[in-house]
Structure formats: structure tokens, C-alpha cells
Amino acid sequence: MDDETPDSLIPYDSIVQEALRAVVGRVLGEIEDGGSELPGAHHFYITFKTHAPGVTIPDSLRERFPDEMTIVLQNKFWNLNVREDGFAVGLSFNQVPAELDIPYAAITQFVDPAVDFGLQFQATVADMAPASTEHPENDGTEQSGGEAVEGAEDGSNVVTVDFGRKK
After folding, report:
1. Which of 58, 125, 140, 155 is least crowded, fewest Cβ atoms below 10 Å from its Cβ?
2. What is the CATH number of domain 12-160?
């Protein structure tokens, strides 16, 4: 019996990644009509690759976060526009308003610490390894500091999908 798994002709890994990214769009779509208010204690940490195709952010943020950036949707955001391929949102960074446009393919992590829910994604663009980033410093109340983002080992409901192939 052969222990080597055959290569699949069906791209299961990319199909699953695409479906999980659609979850982010569905969640954002649920709150889009609510203006700038999230229900209950919900708030979202969304991490994305700043140089991924289709990402539009101010040059000052791209310089500050050259690889990856985490934004927080909680108290102060505006103009949330959810599309089939991504979303746009207005946020304030150090009292400076900014408009961001983020395709779902650029997202590497989505977390709602209020309910211990999170998703992690494989980078869809080659050579997009994660790098450490600064706290986003969005205006508003004190944030929880991102400990839930790293909380996969604390029993939270973080779903990580990694399809490794034997070579």
C-alpha cells in the first residue's frame, strides 16, 4: 500500500479558503445596514496584506504597515460598503480619517473576540509571509489589544485551514 497521498485535480484548498472568506463578507453584510454600530459587544479584528492586489489604503498607512495590517471595526467607522469581492470602510488613524478598500483575498485573519470566533486564511498571493505590525491605534475606546487574535490555543473558536501537500 502506498503511503503517499496523490495530488488532487480538484483545488479543495482554494475552494475552502474562498468559502471561508465569504463568511467574512456575509458577517460584514449583516452589519452594513446598521451604519456604524455593531450589535451587542461584537467587534472585529481584520488582518490583511497591505500590498495584495486590489488593496487601497493611504500611502502613509502602507509605509507604516509595509506587509500586514490589522484594523478594528468597533466604535468609530463609517461608509461600510460590502461587495462580493471585498469591502470598503472609513476609519480614523491618529485622528486622521482614511478610506480603505480591502478585497477578501487579501484578508489573512478575521476575529470577533466578543464571541471567541476567528478565521485564519492562507495568503493567496505568493511570498506574502506575515510580519509583525504595530497596533492600529484606531480612535475610540480602549481595545482588547489583540490577545484574541493569538488565542487559537486558549480554546477559542479559531478555524485554521492548512492543506499541506506531500511532495
Report:
1. 155
2. 2.30.30.220
